[in-house]
Amino acid sequence: MSKKLTVSSIKKSKGVKPLVMITAYDALFARLLEPSADMILVGDSLNMSFAGCSDTISATLEQMIYHTNAVCKGASSSFIICDMPFGTYTDIDKALKNAIQVFQETQADCIKIEGGADKAHIIKHLTDNSIAVCGHIGLLPQSVRSEGGYKVKGKTAQEKETLMQDAKAIEAAGAFCMVIEGTKADVAKEIAQSVSIPVIGIGAGAEVDGQVLVFSDMLGLFEEFTPKFVKKYLNGADLVKGALQEYADEVVAGTFPNEEHTY
Ligand code: KIV
What is the number of the ligand 1 atom nearest to the C-alpha of 23? Predict the structure, then answer.
């Protein structure tokens, strides 16, 4: 994929072509992922797969800015989304101040915030001030402690109605696209059909406007746990461990470095 997408081309892609989103946290992987992805998300999931924490809650704005800068350097022709970490958008002033910091200190094209109708006033304030916003509804990882775990959404008529209101509120507030996570596929499908902006699914079935996966999950590098919705396209952990064992064995056997790798 050659031409960098924009907020407007992403909006126009709805109904034309499914969008491919993937996370990245550093320049090395961003460069590898760039040719296959429409959008790269610097997700606060980095707090788990990169920093080894048990959830995303302790990620900081400074960390997100650091990683977003690395990703922007590695994938300069990609549309890049910086996830706003927990606690950085609790009111409109704080959200705008922090989003401005992200825009001034990185080349991110937009920010992402979690929440539905309850965050619509914040999204409106950000978009009114020239900050492009990707919403995030359904299962919200930043609410995992308050909700007591990762709970799939859309299982009841009430939850479905709430999600529908969330999606419409986010759209009305000016978000140009949204992620829907951990939601029953039939509900996600209906939501995608009910709004005019792209709805990108993760654990939300196939009938939405695109998909996002965490790169370390889909490459099989993250071994702690594998959610049902993750397909491993590579046995990354086994490949890495195999290569490292080969290296270790050769060092011990004295066969590395050989003449080819010696000055
Ligand atoms: O932080 C992240 O990687 C995300 C995805 C799960 C969408 O928000």
Answer: 3
Which residue type sits at 222? F
CA distance 159 to 14: 25
Q: Does some domain include residue 100?
A: yes
Residue identifier of the C-alpha nearest atom 1 of ligand 1: 43
Asked whether 106 lines ligand 1 (CB < 6 A), one says: no
How many angstroms separate the alpha carbon of residue 232 from the centre of ligand 1? 17
Ligand 1, atom 8, lies closest to the CA of 43
pLDDT tens readout for residues 50-97: 999 999 999 999 999 999 999 999 999 999 999 999 999 999 999 999
Does the active-site annotation cover 34?
Answer: no
Residues of the chain with pLDDT under 70: 1-2
State whether 260 and 137 are in the same domain.
no
| Structural domain of 242 | 236-263
Phi-psi region of 179 (alpha: psi -120 to 50; beta: other; left: phi over 0): beta
E strand or H helix at 21, and its extent? strand 19-23
Total domains in the chain come to: 2
Q: Return d(Cα 159, Cα 185) in angstroms, integer.
A: 13
pTM: 0.97
**The token pair that represents 44 in the structure block:** 């606060």
Q: Which residues are CB-contacts of 152 (< 8 A; sequence separation ≥ 6)?
A: 139, 182, 183, 184, 203
Coil, helix or strand at residue 138: strand
